Every structure is written in C-alpha cells, then in structure tokens.
Amino acid sequence: MSHAPESVLHVGGASPYDVVIGHHLAGHLPGMVGDAVRVAIICPDSLEHLVEEIVGPLAEPTPAVPERDITVLAGPDGEEAKSAEVANACWEALGEEGFTRSDVVVTLGGGATTDLGGFVAASWLRGVKVVHVPTTLLAMVDAAVGGKTGINTAAGKNLVGAFHEPAGVLCDLALLETLPTEELIAGLGEVVKCGFIADPEILRLVEENDPADLVPASPVLRELVERAVQVKIDVVVADLKEAGGSELTGAHPGREALNYGHTLAHAIERAEGYEIRHGEAVSIGCVFVAELAHRAAGLPAELVERHRTAFGRVGLPISYEGADFEDLLATMRVDKKSRGNQLRFIVLADVGRPIVLAGPSEEHLRAAFEAVTGSDADVDL
Ligand code: GLY
Description:
alpha/beta, Rossmann fold, Dehydroquinate synthase-like, alpha domain, 2 domains, seven-stranded mixed sheet, two-stranded antiparallel sheet, 42% helix, globular, binds glycine
C-alpha cells in the first residue's frame, strides 16, 4: 500500500527539533543522529528484532562518519525498565563504549523506554543527544514529544527525572502493525483527550469514521496522530517546564492541561496494581472530570455525553467498577498535581478550553464518581 509522504512537525523553543510522521521512516535517522561516531540504541529485549531495520541506515558510511560504532542496550520492558538498576547498567555500558558528548542515544520502544533512554541521555555527561523512535501509539502522541524523562524509585513513579528534549522523533506508523489491538485502542485514549482539550477536529474524525478503520495503515489514524502530536507540541512549546497558568484568572493551565483525566486515572492505575492500561484509565478519568465539571463548573450535559460517546466509540471503558471512592480520593490527595492539601483538576469550560478547578467539594467529587461507577444511575445530567 502506498502512503502519503511523511509529514514534518516542527517543535520550536530553545532546543528545536522535528517530529516526522509517516511510514517506514528509518531513512530519516542518520539525519537526526548527525555526525555522532557512537550510537547507543536502548530498547526492550522484546523489540530487538526491530533493531536491524534502524541499524541499517545508521551503519551506512558517510564522508563525515566513515564508520559508526553502534551498541544495542536491550533490557526489560514496561515499568521494569524505569529503574535505577537499568539506568545504571546503561551508564556502565556507555562508559565502556567511551561515549562522548557528541555521541547519541536512540530509543526504540514504548513510553517506558522513552522515559528511561531520555533520562540516561539527560544524565550522561550532563546531557547527550537523544532521538526517539516510539513503537506504541501512546508513546508517539505523548511520551516521545516534550522532553519529560525519568525513572521510578521506591518513593514513587517518575520522581527522579529531567526535562531533556529530543533531537528528533520518528513516528513510524508501520511499527504499529504488530501492536496488539488493545494497545492501539489504549493509545487512542490520549488522542481523544487531545481532542477535548484543544482540537475538536479530532473528535469529529473519531465520531464520523468507523472505529474499525482506525488501523495503522489508515489515513484517518495518521491524521489523528498528526493532530494529537500538534496539540502536544503547542502545549509544550508554550510551557515546557509546566510552570502553568493561573486558576485565579482562568488562564490556560499550560502543560498541566495534558493531565486532563489523569488525576483519577493515576489513582485507578495504582488501585488496579497497574494491570489496567494507562489510556483506559485516562478514558475513565476524562469522563469523571467531565461529570465533575458539569456539577462544579457548569459544563453542559451534552458535552459530558460527548465524552462517553467519543471514548466509548473507539472501544475504551467509560465506567469503572473497582476500588472505593474513599481509597481513590486518598490517592488523589497525594497526586503530585495537588498543592498543599487542595485537590486540583483540569476540567473543561468548553471543548478546547481547559481550566484548573481547585478544591472541588467532596459532594461534587463523590457525585461525579458515582456517575462513572454507574452506582448513581438516576443522576440528572
Ligand atoms: N504526559 C504529560 C506531559 O508530557 O506533560
């Protein structure tokens, strides 16, 4: 199948870079890696078979680099990759390779690999270049863009990390061909979220296309990825370090807007022992904050229903049966987005108008939760 030529989305700011979106993009890697003599590819063991595809173009001799030294650092997958032990093993390997400031880390994997590899690159010699080649939809539209990197420690998830923007990102949709359908659907959770916080065209595309057609080869999926990445770019260019807006003035919350639906989502993920996919939890979390905004900030009932329709249409859960409200509330209170003891949520004033809702009443929180658990079926929208 022939595909439209790749699109290049430019990320401005102090460390500008390009996000290339299309099919079969490995040929772009040498340009992003530049004249680095050494390249370390960080990937999970399960994706080692994909390494060959990207090593090929990187190994091609150029006048500036007649021979490139390419090392593959394969390790654990998922959250297990994001440990101090795995980061340390990477640092040891870079030391053995004599990795210098002009050498480059390439990540190949999902969001955990991007976070780990980005952190290794941010910390080695106080920062070497990193290029991300995300292999999941979730990583393409979220983790790979915007420079957040980090690992988990006993104290919690993502508490150790750095902002380190990549030198380039390759969103190669052909890599999604072997992604399990449930993972693709979970990635759509972040895409639909971007529709609600910034780009109603995403919602129209989801509402008007057959969800069964949202496969890696489809032009509609590609447009959804391009639009979601553009939303992320716009937000991080305006507020890279999450300095935020002001809840007092109703200003745009900046990067925190990307956290739409995430406060309850993180609590659910934790309660479920991380057995639920992030995008699934985000879907439930977005319906919850829509219900909350309906009660606490006057969001019209039709927009609450639109959340259920859009997330539900792509196959994501829109209700939750699991942990108790009290347990989830306790977790939300220690979420890193809380300030002092006050709970903060990103809610919508309208589609494309995220605002901060600080300190909602427990009554509103409970009623919104009941509307999501279905235990308050008579709730009047
Ligand atoms: N994943 C949220 C952010 O990048 O800020």
